[in-house]
């Protein structure tokens, strides 16, 4: 793990869970270039750290992430704006293909780039007080980190157009009904519920969990036949691992398995 300072997020690792908390509370955790750079470096470190089994993203205060820091837009040149968008895409793309599971624990506002972070998470648990949306049209802009495309793949063409064209916010319950959010819980139960789900994921064999994520993501851009062929190949690969033999043996012997990620 690198010793690079973290000024916009905090990191806590407990029981193989890396909890990354956005800490620009006075700006509702709005994203700036420094935040993107910190997260890109941190994501690389966490992906390579064998002590980390998954990542939890959450925010301090009233917001998860309330979008980009608009106060910085007024003085940006076009080239600077494009560079900022590219930083964001680099982070979102990395998190989407991150080998380990990424859980978003949405404690409050998840808007613009914050909603785009939600869209790349593998699992989303939201406080009943959370609000989610892509309000960029109200600024004369559009999402620039994949929001238009990832939202459409989740909710369908017409609903995505409605949300993008109006900039309307979704409640946590509405986002759950659309398939964006997995669970909605009371605000004071958010992290308890998130850790409980994370522990259930970590009880599985690490390689199997990682390959499940990869198969679902890859399959979205492949034909059914191609995706099933990939599934068969990965299943065979897993069968040859120590963890698969441990899992099979533990089942037969009626004991808990001890997975090592090999």
In words, what does this structure look like?
The protein has about 260 residues and is an alpha/beta fold. The chain folds into two domains: about 190 residues, 2-enoyl-CoA Hydratase, Chain A, domain 1, CATH 3.90.226; about 50 residues, Lyase 2-enoyl-coa Hydratase, Chain  A, domain 2, CATH 1.10.12. About 45% of the residues lie in helices and about 15% in strands. The chain contains ten helices and ten strands. The strands form two sheets. The chain has a six-stranded mixed beta sheet with strand order 1-2-3-5-7-10, with helices on both faces. The protein has a four-stranded mixed beta sheet with strand order 4-6-8-9. Strand 2, helix 1 and strand 3 form a beta-alpha-beta unit. Helix 2 runs parallel beside helix 3 and helix 3 packs across helix 4. The two termini are about 20 Å apart. About 35% of the residues are buried. The model has no long low-confidence stretch (mean pLDDT about 95).
Q: Which CATH class of the largest domain is shown? A: Alpha Beta
CATH topology of the largest domain: 2-enoyl-CoA Hydratase, Chain A, domain 1
Q: What sequence of helices (H) and strands (E) makes up the elements?
A: EEHEEHEEHEEHHEHEHHHH
Task: Count every helix, treating DSSP H or I runs of 4 or more residues as helices.
Answer: 10
Domain count: 2
From the alpha carbons, calculate the radius of gyration and give it in angstroms.
19 Å
Alpha-carbon distance between the two ends: 21 Å
Percentage of residues in DSSP E strands = 15-25%
Please give the oligomerization state of what you see: single chain
Structure summary, number of beta strands: 10
Tell me, rounded to a whole number, the average pLDDT: 96
Derived from helix and strand composition plus strand pairing, the structural class reads alpha/beta
User: Major β-sheet, in short?
Assistant: 6 strands, mixed
- The gross shape turns out to be globular
Which stretches are poorly predicted, pLDDT < 50 over at least 5 residues? none
- Name the CATH architecture of the largest domain: Alpha-Beta Complex
Looking at this structure, what is the CATH superfamily of the largest domain? 2-enoyl-CoA Hydratase, Chain A, domain 1
The strand order across the widest sheet is: 1-2-3-5-7-10
Q: Helix content range of the residues, please? A: 40-55%
